[in-house]
């Protein structure tokens, strides 16, 4: 197992359990205790966990796994969701993309669509995500609008009043939201209030809103609210979504696409 894969596994275990000891982690990952101690020390230096005597605990009250360590989680589901979302976007439209692993996959799905290989522009993409802008900027047929703002290292998203200033001056045909949680009663939410504020503004500037969320995100809530359920037009999720949850979203007026 590579170091990055091991770190991802350790962080996921910490998010799930809140606390890990060295021997427990070594047994789970089938590596030596010395390796785990070294990993814990290095992750603590990056402020991604808090070192304790004999183990580690999650960093902070509301823990958010950095984007670079989330890319492999539910990867196949996210790719299917992304392809379905991309098919809902028409050539020539202006598309708003928030940050996150699923929306990054949406950007990649748009990039390989044959009918978007040319145009002036084939799409206008508005995003506050540095990684998404970087991936799409090499596509000359796409017009990329990147908001200003201060970068969050966890998600590569730009937040703050500079981002607000750009979004308040534009409109988009469709906003695609990546969320931490989406619930019929509580709406869409994120870990960070600054990200939620930018995402909320993007929704307000859009003619229609699509939430791209795998089934693990449904039925829960996170710290900061992005928007109410009735602000969303379409939910694209995977086929593992609970049937009752899907029914409730449909009763609330959403189109639900399960792939």
The side-by-side strand order for the widest beta sheet comes to 6-5-4-9-12-14-15
Mean pLDDT: 90
Instruction: Label the overall shape.
Output: globular
Helical fraction equals 25-40%
Structural class label:
alpha/beta
Question: What can you see in these coordinates?
Answer:
- The protein is an alpha/beta fold.
- The chain is built from nine helices and 15 strands.
- The longest helix is centred in the N-terminal third of the chain and has 15 residues.
- The chain is globular, with a radius of gyration of 19 Å.
- It starts with a helix and ends with a strand.
Topology of this protein?
Layout: H1 3-17, E1 19-21, H2 22-29, H3 33-45, E2 49-52, E3 55-58, H4 75-86, E4 94-97, H5 101-111, E5 123-127, H6 130-136, E6 142-146, E7 150-152, E8 157-159, H7 161-167, E9 172-178, E10 181-183, E11 187-190, H8 193-204, E12 206-212, E13 224-227, E14 234-237, H9 243-251, E15 255-258
Parallel strand pairs: 4-5, 4-9, 5-6, 9-12, 12-14, 14-15
Antiparallel strand pairs: 1-3, 2-3, 7-8, 10-11, 11-13
Give me some keywords for this one:
259 residues; alpha/beta; seven-stranded parallel sheet; three-stranded antiparallel sheet; 9 helices; 36% helix
Summarize the model shown.
With 259 residues, the chain is an alpha/beta fold. The protein is built from 9 helices and 15 strands.
